[in-house]
């Protein structure tokens, strides 16, 4: 069992398979994109399967695949199918922007994918283009429809941004009326890829909730699952639910049970922290598995208490990285 120095059991791995993305969201990266990692810098699929297998033996039982955008990496579905068969894996989840995902949804269902997190900041085509710099909303909505039709658990993740999409809060909430979808609103974070855009916390979780209450005064708080990153709510008569993630104010950090592996194999115990171990380099050095487990356990045991402590002890460049390079 993996346990950090605060007594928390760590059982959740977020594994990023690529830093590349087919959108150019202004709050994540510049319009021209990033300096993408070369193929040799990325972990191979075999390395990802190996480190996943090692961590599953150590107590990880849930893996979420992130990016960048996972579907832009060649042969991704073949990798995902192999990953799904690893012993000890109880939940396999995926975060995607939905641009390329819809045709693969039947296969995702077949291999036993548990849930999909769909990044979707607006339902308006013009605002979608303004935010992502790409005209791909129809493809994203096709993915949403396909995921619902195939009975996969789905969460919509929407970053709330001043002057960009606050008018989309209520239309997104309305999706929960007739669909079993969780719509989660996320405070804007500072991981902008050096794009020159600064996060604006004028829309914190309390303000977001007040807007929703203005339309749905009978919305009620429901119990949050263990280790939940969101405060969860239910509107009477709605099939779905609403969540608000205090990602910038970080009020959920105390129960964190997750670690992250970046596409280049860097282990991070907090989104706001620095890399503390490069497992790709350790694997390529031929380190025996027992020693690899010891290195992982030692690094994970030093997980910071919360995001504020991690940020304080990180290097100064962490907050100017892109979400695409640190695992979404």
Automatic annotation (TrEMBL):
It comes from Pontibacter anaerobius. Its EC number is 4.1.99.22. The keyword Iron applies. The lineage of its organism: Bacteria, Pseudomonadati, Bacteroidota, Cytophagia, Cytophagales. It catalyses: GTP + AH2 + S-adenosyl-L-methionine = (8S)-3',8-cyclo-7,8-dihydroguanosine 5'-triphosphate + 5'-deoxyadenosine + L-methionine + A + H(+). This is GTP 3',8-cyclase. Residues 5-226 form the Radical SAM core domain. It is an enzyme of class 4 (lyase). The gene is moaA. GO terms for molecular function: GTP 3',8'-cyclase activity. It comes from the Bacteria. Its cofactor is [4Fe-4S] cluster. NCBIfam families: moaA (TIGR02666). InterPro entries: Aldolase_TIM (IPR013785), Elp3/MiaA/NifB-like_rSAM (IPR006638), MoaA (IPR013483), MoaA-like (IPR040064), MoaA_NifB_PqqE_Fe-S-bd_CS (IPR000385), MoaA_twitch (IPR010505), MoCo_biosynth_MoaA/MoaC (IPR050105), rSAM (IPR007197). Keywords: 4Fe-4S, GTP-binding, Iron, Iron-sulfur, Lyase, Metal-binding, Molybdenum cofactor biosynthesis, Nucleotide-binding, S-adenosyl-L-methionine.
